[in-house]
Design goal:
- It catalyses: ATP + protein L-histidine = ADP + protein N-phospho-L-histidine.
- Keywords: ATP-binding, Cell membrane, Kinase, Membrane, Nucleotide-binding, Phosphoprotein, Transferase, Two-component regulatory system.
- InterPro entries: HATPase_C_sf, HATPase_dom, His_kinase_dom, HisK_dim/P_dom, HisK_dim/P_sf, Sig_transdc_His_kin-like_C.
- By secondary structure, the chain is α+β, with helices and mostly antiparallel strands.
- Helix content is 46%, strand content 21%.
- It contains 7 helices and 11 strands.
- The strands form 4 sheets. Strands 6-8-9-11-10 form a 5-stranded mixed beta sheet, with helices on one face.
- Strand 8 and strand 9 form a beta hairpin.
- Helix 5 packs parallel to helix 6 and helix 6 packs antiparallel against helix 7.
- The protein starts with a helix and ends with a strand.
- It binds adenosine-5'-triphosphate (ATP) and magnesium ion.
């Protein structure tokens, strides 16, 4: 803390002496005043900024220590936030002949974030980078969106087979927990357009949730209905259920139900987010209906033809 107060005092002293100079010049009002004024004004400006940054850091640190620092989160384009911050230090870096290179593979990536916190975090990292990079060298700022997930590999596939395989792969695990698993397709075969690995992933996510949140002695039904140009897949359990107020938020990243009747059973709270994303990419739908202590049903509706 004493180091910080020393640093806080330095710019203040510079303000004072600069202001004194200005006062004297103002009284004398000589010809060179304009030029001098410009020079001192710059010193004031730079030091004001430095001072503000220091004060902000001190305030933030004490907020972090007391647990008060909370972001104001909303949806923003993360790419342009990072790009703007980078651009704002380009001139400053050029004073040291450091070249800053920005690169991205996407123009837009909307993320829930607090832009002012991201700006501050990046500015801290960038100013360190500038400080510790020798003249005539480069600094690279890269923001890459991981898009392995943006595309699905659509083929004609038998959805009955995919769902059965997914369920069978979990059968031993479920039966070892003393839960009954019943697979009931109402058709022998149904060809639809889908990515079989991704759909299998969804079914595995839903059945493992059902197994995770159903006590022993319970039952899980995997039901399939042929609706002609659509197919319905239901995963029903007799588990702890989900309060209606959580029916939307469980599909958000990292969200897990934490209330008096449920207990968090590990996991990351990503399974349903990924599942919904995959179903969206298939232009399908996912629904939940549930009653506390009675059980939950997750329903996926997939189209026979996506396009
Ligand atoms: N069948 C279910 N019965 C009761 N609660 C459920 C059921 N499925 C999901 N939930 C609730 O929704 C939350 C989010 O589910 P999700 O699959 O996204 O995450 P998770 O299972 O906790 O972790 P992960 O799947 O990433 O390992 C769960 O933590 C749980 O509270
Ligand atoms: Mg899960």
């Amino acid at each position: 803390m004493s180091n910080i107060s020393h640093e806080l005092r330095t710019p203040i002293n510079i303000f004072y002496s600069t202001i004194q100079h200005l006062d004297i010049s103002l009284i004398k009002s000589d010809k060179d005043f304009k030029e001098m004024y410009r020079k001192y004004r710059k010193t004031l400006h730079v030091n004001c900024k430095r001072m503000l940054r220091l004060i902000n850091n001190v305030v933030d640190i004490s907020k972090i220590e007391t647990g008060i620092l909370k972001g104001k989160f909303d949806y923003y384009n993360l790419i342009s936030i990072v790009e703007d911050v980078t651009l704002s230090v380009v001139n400053y870096a050029q004073l040291k002949s450091i070249n800053i290179q920005f690169d991205t593979n996407e123009e837009e990536f909307i993320a829930k974030c607090d832009p002012s916190m991201i700006e501050r975090a990046l500015l801290n990292l960038l100013s360190n980078a500038i400080k510790f990079t020798p003249e005539n060298k480069n600094i690279y700022v890269n923001i890459y969106v991981n898009d392995d997930f943006a595309e699905i590999n659509i083929k004609d596939e038998d959805i009955v087979y995919i769902v059965e395989e997914a369920a069978l792969s979990l059968k031993d695990y479920i039966e070892n927990k003393n839960i009954e698993l019943v697979i009931e397709p109402d058709m022998e075969e149904k060809i639809i357009q889908c990515d079989k690995y991704e759909i299998e992933r969804c079914i595995v996510n839903l059945i493992s949730n059902a197994a995770k949140f159903t006590p022993k002695g319970g039952r899980i039904d995997v039901v399939m209905k042929d609706l002609g140009d659509q197919v319905e897949i239901l995963i029903k359990d007799t588990g702890i259920g989900i309060d209606e107020k959580y029916h939307n938020s469980i599909f958000d990243r990292f969200n897990q139900v934490i209330d008096e009747h449920s207990e968090v059973k590990g996991g990351s709270g990503l399974g349903l987010t990924i599942t919904k994303h995959i179903i969206d990419l298939h232009k399908g739908q996912i629904f939940v209906s549930s009653e506390i202590n009675k059980g939950s049903t997750f329903k996926i509706v997939l189209k026979e033809k996506i396009n």
